[in-house]
Design brief:
Protein name: DUF3795 domain-containing protein
Distance between the termini: 28 Å
Largest sheet: none
Structural class: mainly alpha
Helix content: 40-55%
Organism: Candidatus Ventrousia excrementavium
Radius of gyration: 17 Å
Oligomer: single chain
Length: 180
């Protein structure tokens, strides 16, 4: 969108965690404000002087924002509003520090545990689960005897099972919600 640019590529204008999106990770998307397609929220930001985050607007949360995210795109939108509030409350720098750690973890999972069919799963899991739970899963993975010498498919299964177990405890479904 012409005239819409952003500095922060980890957290979008509307609260999506772009740094955890498979499209951005694969270089198919420049992220919010860098080569993405036209967006109602981006147009709204420009109308309000080019705000960096929706929560900076005096009308937040507006009708446009509240309707965003009923369905997922390449990344889950389920925590979008919660993440926006968290960023607002703890500050962008602290929020981005968490996202950088999550992004590093995701890259490691994709490198070491993706059997070629788990990219969306890992992106969704890292996006939706709490950082502390993710750290605990990595700790459990590291304690599995001989995991590093297992075939990739076996390693992937171990990781997926641990993420599913953690998600089940939190009542989180690790699947993208698609329009029907």
């Amino acid at each position: 969108m012409r005239g819409f640019e952003r500095k922060n590529q980890l957290l979008s204008l509307c609260g999506l965690n772009c740094g955890l999106c498979p499209m951005l990770l694969d270089g198919h998307c420049g992220g919010c404000g860098h080569g993405n397609q036209s967006c109602k929220i981006a147009r709204c930001s420009l109308k309000h002087g080019g705000l960096e985050y929706c929560f900076e607007c005096s009308e937040y949360p507006c009708e446009t924002y509240l309707r965003a995210g009923e369905f997922d795109s390449f990344i889950s939108h389920r925590n979008q509003k919660l993440d926006m509030e968290k960023a607002k409350n703890i500050g962008i720098n602290a929020y981005n520090a968490e996202q950088r750690e999550k992004s590093e973890i995701l890259r490691g999972l994709l490198s070491d545990y993706n059997d070629g069919r788990r990219k969306s799963f890992f992106c969704t899991a890292i996006n939706l689960l709490d950082l502390q739970d993710i750290r605990e899963i990595l700790q459990k993975l590291s304690k599995i005897p001989g995991i590093d010498s297992q075939p990739l498919k076996e390693k992937s299964t171990w990781a997926v099972d641990l993420f599913q177990e953690a998600a089940k405890k939190q009542g989180v479904e690790l699947k993208l919600r698609r329009k029907k």
